[in-house]
Specification:
mainly alpha, 2 domains, Serine Threonine Protein Phosphatase 5, Tetratricopeptide repeat, single chain
Length: 223
């Protein structure tokens, strides 16, 4: 969620690269500026709504039968909260489809679909985001997609994604994160020798670190 919160205030200018001459150039630049201004305004609106949707995911849960406080949004169950957040992310993706913020909304759509048990929708949205130009967001989508594959017994697909993330780490998903998830996948699928290989690799690559200690503890648990 920390990485997700950091993306909520994203903004970036769009510049036209059209190269034409004379009056055509002036007209093209005017049109380009108009398009940039429109997209920028749309993205700002989408960003505000994304912030609200992320806050919904973190809203408090109240005991059943407890009246809701209109000043502090809350829900009676995690499913109710996730369902509402999912609706909000879907609205952003539908209303602002051509903005960068919509990509983040689709990422959260994938996460919430997975949480609601709709693995087909989760796979569809996360696959879309996994091919995004924003490599940090794409990496997060691949990590979430690998979890969907792992939970639906598509171990080979999950392992492939974890290996991709290990080969090309990003600021959002470091190599160690992918290694830990891959090792856990091997453990859950009764492949202790492969898990041991990953943990030993972590020890070698991160000597005298907390990661090395973590790997040592996992190796001891495999015995």
């Amino acid at each position: 969620m920390g990485a997700a919160e950091a993306t909520v205030h994203w903004s970036e200018e769009h510049k036209s690269k059209l190269i034409v001459g004379g009056l055509i150039l002036a007209v093209a630049l005017a049109a380009g500026f108009g398009g940039w201004y429109y997209l920028n305004q749309q993205d700002q609106k989408a960003s505000i709504q994304l912030n609200q949707a992320v806050r919904t995911m973190d809203a408090q849960l109240r005991p059943a039968g407890t009246p809701a406080d209109p000043d502090f949004p809350s829900f009676t169950s995690a499913k109710e909260r996730t369902t509402e957040a999912h609706k909000q992310f879907q609205a952003i993706a539908d209303q602002y489809p051509h903005t960068r913020t919509a990509e983040f909304a689709r990422y959260f759509l994938g996460l919430t679909s997975s949480q609601l048990g709709d693995n087909a929708a989760a796979e569809r949205d996360l696959k879309t985001v996994a091919s995004a130009h924003n490599e940090d967001l794409a990496a997060l989508a691949k990590l979430a997609l690998a979890a969907v594959y792992r939970d639906t017994n598509r171990t080979k697909d999950a392992i492939e994604l974890y290996n991709q993330l290990m080969a090309k780490p990003t600021r959002s998903v470091g190599k160690a994160t992918a290694q830990m998830e891959l090792a856990e996948t091997y453990v859950s699928t009764q492949q202790p020798a492969e898990a041991k290989r990953i943990y030993e690799q972590m020890q070698k690559e991160n000597p005298a670190s907390e990661l090395a200690q973590f790997a040592t503890q996992k190796l001891q648990a495999l015995k």
